[in-house]
């Protein structure tokens, strides 16, 4: 492919932006940038395989992770055109096994992450870490749930499990496998010959870069997603060339799909309180410094990606990485956008200075929800974390003074009432407010907590046994089910509260314990995408 010349200054700046990744000793990334269908920039950096010393090139295939979601949503809309699927029917209409609350959400709600169902990926990682269960476990986990995160439609919480269910519905009504329908109806019409949906990282498929994860103590390990049934939630493999063909069609929309279909794909629907979310059907739609963007990122074990298009300017950016050190495709795509559309961008939105909220920094927990939020100072900027995670997400201030996440996180907002004490904070999620109180890792009575919490617990919804025990100076949580086990260290935050200790995996969870007679009788665990999962103490004989 011939690359047209960019403005010399912009071209030089792009080379400088990606220069740190131009190495031959570490994994890297591939970049494709086009405007009005004409290629502007196309390069590979680093290695596709450290094992075989094969370099990344623009022809290298990589997993795009959750960018796959809007392909799933578009396939649903085409089946709606065919009269085979109803966007506003409960998912139970197509998967009758979902007799519990997980069958209540509509297909549309699941595609918008507003279904309220728990996420099988969260539960899987909690129960067995990266061990791989047999096919069918994902659906079985969703079917088994007797609880949920929230009532369908109330709010938004990003959820891979909903997209997995929609993939099954597509397969049942579409007359072919989910993967075959993607190929026939979406990839083939656009000549995306190097794109396909591959459910398992254990399948040997030509041309795919190895995903790389840093190994403890140095070196690298293979990044393998812990599922052999990764489908509509994140199973697609592609190249930058194919993805630029796709982003071009997201703007032209001239090969398939009715106007109503394309409008629905990027249409934003109000929440019950009238506020407008920024997440449509598998795509985020927002304004960035006055420029309208349609985008989605993706993450897999050992890889990350970003697909971004600025429709009014015809600009498409695709970046896919297979473990490049210190690489954020989301940030790189934003920086490339700034270089190319510099003359069209408005003022940058101000960040919130952490110094202005010194008294709010720390961990906040609610006895009513069991949820744990953290307010962090990251290089002077105020950020919000979930469930004790050591890293946070950016925040923004609304015109009325409320503080909100600067990204889609399910309508979280916080503030302090005039009548609140200095150690109380009101946090709203899904239209419901709760009072949160500050907890401290430094003042908690760890010894009393360990004595009360030590023991064995079981969750029927997770079909998982959890053991809490002292190991030297550490408090360990060990979980296991029929297919594997996982362990992590707990940090005591109070008499009945704990969270996972920061780890390289980045996993986070908050535990709230119930007591009787000075002894823990069970706990509720909240994860970033799954809430109110209960474990009960097992009786000893």
Automatic annotation (TrEMBL):
Signal peptide: none
SUPFAM superfamilies assigned to the protein according to its UniProt record, in alphabetical order: beta-lactamase/transpeptidase-like (SSF56601)
Lineage top rank: taxon: Bacteria
One Pfam assignment: Beta-lactamase
Residue intervals of the Beta-lactamase-related domain: 22-329
Protein name as catalogued: Beta-lactamase family protein
Source species of the chain: Paraburkholderia polaris
């Amino acid at each position: 492919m011939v690359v047209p010349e960019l403005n010399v200054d912009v071209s030089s700046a792009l080379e400088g932006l990606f220069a740190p990744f131009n190495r031959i000793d570490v994994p890297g990334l591939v970049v494709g940038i086009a405007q009005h269908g004409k290629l502007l920039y196309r390069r590979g950096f680093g290695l596709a395989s450290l094992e075989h010393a094969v370099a990344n090139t623009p022809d290298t295939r990589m997993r795009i992770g959750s960018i796959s979601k809007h392909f799933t949503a578009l396939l649903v809309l085409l089946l709606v055109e065919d009269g085979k699927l109803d966007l506003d029917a409960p998912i139970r209409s197509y998967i009758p096994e979902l007799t519990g609350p997980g069958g209540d959400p509509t297909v549309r709600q699941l595609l918008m992450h507003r279904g309220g169902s728990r996420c099988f990926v969260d539960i899987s990682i909690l129960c067995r870490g990266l061990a791989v269960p047999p096919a069918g476990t994902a659906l079985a986990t969703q079917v088994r749930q007797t609880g949920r995160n929230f009532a369908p439609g109330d709010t938004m919480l990003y959820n891979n499990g909903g997209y997995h269910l929609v993939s099954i519905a597509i397969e049942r009504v579409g007359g072919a496998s989910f993967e075959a329908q993607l190929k026939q109806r979406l990839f083939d019409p656009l000549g995306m010959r190097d794109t396909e949906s591959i459910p398992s990282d254990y399948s040997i498929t030509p041309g795919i870069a190895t995903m790389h994860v840093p190994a403890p103590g140095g070196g690298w390990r293979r990044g393998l997603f812990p599922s052999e049934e990764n489908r509509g939630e994140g199973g697609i493999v592609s190249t930058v060339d194919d993805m630029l063909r796709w982003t071009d069609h997201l703007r032209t929309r001239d090969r398939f799909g009715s106007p109503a279909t394309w409008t629905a794909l990027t249409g934003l629907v109000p929440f019950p309180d009238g506020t407008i979310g920024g997440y449509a059907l598998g795509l985020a739609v927002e304004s960035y410094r006055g420029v309208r963007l349609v985008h989605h990122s993706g993450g897999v074990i050992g890889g990350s990606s970003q697909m971004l298009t600025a429709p009014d300017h015809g600009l498409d950016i695709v970046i896919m990485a297979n473990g490049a050190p210190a690489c954020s495709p989301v940030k790189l795509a934003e920086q490339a956008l700034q270089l190319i559309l510099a003359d069209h961008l408005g003022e940058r939105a101000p960040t919130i200075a952490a110094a202005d909220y010194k008294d709010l920094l720390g961990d906040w927990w609610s006895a009513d929800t069991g949820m744990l939020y953290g307010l962090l100072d990251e290089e002077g900027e105020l950020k919000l974390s979930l469930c004790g995670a050591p890293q946070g997400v950016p925040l923004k201030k609304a015109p009325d003074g409320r503080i909100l996440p600067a990204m889609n996180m399910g309508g979280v907002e916080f503030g302090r009432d005039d009548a609140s004490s200095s150690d109380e904070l009101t946090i709203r999620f899904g239209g419901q407010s709760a009072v949160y109180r500050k907890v401290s890792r430094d003042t908690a009575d760890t010894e009393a907590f360990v004595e009360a919490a030590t023991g064995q617990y079981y969750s029927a919804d997770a079909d998982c046994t959890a053991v809490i025990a002292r190991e030297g100076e550490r408090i360990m949580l060990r979980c296991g089910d029929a297919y594997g086990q996982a362990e992590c260290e707990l940090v005591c935050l109070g008499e009945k509260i704990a969270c996972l200790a920061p780890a390289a995996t980045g996993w986070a969870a908050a535990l709230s314990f119930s007591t009787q007679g000075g002894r823990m009788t069970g706990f509720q665990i909240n994860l970033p995408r799954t809430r109110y999962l209960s474990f009960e103490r097992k009786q000893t004989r």
